[in-house]
């Protein structure tokens, strides 16, 4: 974020505003952590501020300070619309294209508010008046820490903000193991712990709240894993019937795709999840090294994300999606055999 934009945003926030903070559809730990931390921060500045999420999010994130104040656009539609229509400033966090917010896209497109984007994904669109976009960042939560620091307010970071930011960084870095984790990330995390983030509590509440159904679903997913040694690739499938058999709840498949990368010699891992209600197959891609799943997802599966972590979707059946995926791997054989 350049100095001119920092000064402009600082001036904007020095006056009373009606602010709405919006994360992407199906918000994850980084999205919820960053929105809640920013909400707490803006409240310390005396701003009128609300969070509107496009849809529900996993139960294992519904403990962070302030989570009960979050409005679900699907369930609290009238109230959410009214807040967005009244907004003078809208922060969009952890996404960079309005297509990522589902049915909220139309109302945000019509808004006359000043938009501020804070995000670390590739290929941002240009809807925002002020943009803090940096693909080298580990997480949007690390960027929110920087944003507060840019405005000279890092002393305002309290334990509530700190644990929200810590949780988002923790989840988006795979507990600090991804290559996006830098020495700066660790310095930020250390500062957050010093400011009151209870790191063990965050880890336990996110990762140690499994249900028997989720573990049985994980067993099903691992049983379905297919290994394509020729391409150093592993993929998992989960059908709608399998999800229903194990009482699937939102967030239950979080992290399943990463198991493929724990196999020796596997550099590309994918999970295909059938969603008959939406008529799509939801896809998550992970990779190690230089193979860009962002480019792969954008080219073949209407998706995108980061170099080593991306998402996508398919509008054909689960079986047809898998067949198409396997058929195009030959184009990438050289890249997948480093």
UniProtKB/TrEMBL annotation:
Task: Provide the transmembrane region boundaries.
Answer: none
Question: Organism's domain of life?
Answer: Bacteria
Q: Fetch the Gene3D superfamilies from UniProt.
A: 3.10.310.30, inorganic pyrophosphatase (n-terminal core)
Record-linked Pfam families: DHH (PF01368), DHHA1 (PF02272)
Q: Where is the DDH domain?
A: 18-169
The residues forming the signal peptide are: none
Q: Where is the DHHA1 domain?
A: 269-332
Q: Which InterPro entries match?
A: DDH_dom, DHH_sf, DHHA1_dom, Oligoribo/pAp-PDE_c-di-AMP_PDE
Q: PANTHER family given for it?
A: BIFUNCTIONAL OLIGORIBONUCLEASE AND PAP PHOSPHATASE NRNA (PTHR47618)
Q: What is this protein called?
A: Bifunctional oligoribonuclease/PAP phosphatase NrnA
Q: Which organism is it from?
A: Maribacter arenosus
Q: What is the lineage of its organism?
A: Bacteria, Pseudomonadati, Bacteroidota, Flavobacteriia, Flavobacteriales
